[in-house]
Design brief:
The chain is an alpha/beta fold. Helices cover about 45% and strands about 20% of the residues. Strands 3-2-1-4-5-6-9 form a 7-stranded parallel sheet, sandwiched between helices. The longest helix is centred in the middle third of the chain and has 29 residues.
Length: about 240
């Protein structure tokens, strides 16, 4: 077996610009082969060509059949997944009177159902191997609702509760489950365009989030963290 194939495999669901791409670069530089999952492969294909051992897969995290196809292809082409990072997430910023039922359900599907479906694809091999890591990228909205998070907060709360339930169930089998809660606006070209007046320190830097993620993946079982929270030093909380 080649040295490349001996490297652990990390599947990143939601491998778009920002945190997803930063995760891929950080993990590739630290001995992982990465599977990049996103609804479209235009950007992930370009990223995969820049990273040794990386592959891009089309995947809609809200559709069970799409998740199943993508992870079947990963197992066939790359092997068992050693680490799953669920980074898919989207929000609709409306109050309870303005939000539609369809928008409410879609938020739950992206943030909670997708995390459940992706996790189910990797748990059997992780339990069989007696090791593995599953990390959800969460948000402070999981802890309290606000006026315009009538859909996002309940969806992120469901994701957080799922992570806690999984951590209790899978920990005894050697599988580390954690949630990395991000409090702040991630620095991407899109957010910079929307907030041109904000200083650099206002934004969450994807590279710093990737450092925190790697720390979670490197933790020893005697001191696993089930939850980690990160925010810019200037963030009010």
């Amino acid at each position: 077996m080649s040295a490349q194939l001996k490297k652990p495999v990390c599947a990143i669901v939601g491998a778009g610009p920002g945190n997803g791409a930063a995760f891929a670069r950080k993990l590739t530089g630290n001995g992982y082969r990465v599977a990049l999952l996103a609804r479209g492969t235009e950007s992930t294909k370009t990223l995969s060509e820049q990273l040794e051992g990386a592959r891009a897969y089309a995947c809609d995290g809200t559709v069970a059949e799409s998740i199943e196809r993508a992870f079947a292809a990963i197992r066939e082409e790359m092997g068992d997944v050693d680490a799953l990072i669920y980074n898919a997430g989207s929000g609709v910023w409306k109050n309870v009177e303005d939000i539609t039922a369809e928008e409410f359900e879609q938020s739950w599907r992206v943030n909670a159902l997708g995390a459940f479906l992706a996790s189910r694809q990797v748990i059997p091999a992780m339990k069989n191997n007696g090791r593995g890591s599953i990390v959800f990228i969460g948000a402070t909205a999981s802890r309290r609702g606000n006026v315009y998070t009538a859909a996002f907060a309940p969806a992120k709360a469901a994701q957080k509760s799922l992570a806690e339930s999984m951590a209790r169930h899978l920990g005894p089998h050697g599988v580390h489950v954690a949630i990395l809660i991000i409090d702040g606006v991630v620095d991407t070209p899109e957010t910079r365009k929307k907030m041109p007046d904000k200083a650099d320190e206002f934004f969450v830097q994807p590279g710093a989030v990737a450092d925190a993620l790697l720390h979670l993946l490197d933790q020893k079982p005697s001191a696993w963290a089930a939850e980690m929270e990160g925010r810019p030093f200037g963030e009010k909380w």
